[in-house]
Amino acid sequence: MIPTLVGITIMVFAISRLAPGDPAGVWLCAGIEGISNDNGLSYVITYSFHHRSDYWEQTVIYIDPNIGRPPKDLAFGTSEGDIGLGDFEINFTVTPVGADESLWIQAAVTNSPAITYVSNLLRFVGISAAAQASPLDNQVIIEARFGALIVGQTVHQWVSVLDRLSGQLSPPRRTSVVVVTT
What we know:
By secondary structure, the chain is an alpha+beta fold. It has two helices and eight strands; from the N terminus they run H-E-E-E-E-E-E-H-E-E.
């Protein structure tokens, strides 16, 4: 632990002295490697840095050469989770998605609304029809993957637009709903 703290202190000092005239954000620490030849009594630490004068925090937008624009994206409005007489669906815009596009749906079901980190629990549940309009009733495909939903469970859904021509997925939009019944 002490070598780590000393290393971080030295690294911060080194970065601040690398090029005193450089603004913040042009140096990126690419690696820290430490080895000990005396069972941890001392360490030889090597730091690697990369310099980029146009800063490291750039937004990169991919333009699909086949269609001349970035892949489509969704914006969610609401999500409903009524397994009784109400609706179990997701509402989204742009609606409908394009003729060559579908919704790519991943979901996770938890037994507590306090569980919000679900990246490791997600399962692919299905792809909507092409040109899917909002709202999408996806209770059947979620229950096919997870079994019958129970009141009080939380359904987390990550939905992307799938371009069927290029195979590209948009970034996922996330929505969560607690299951109720009427």
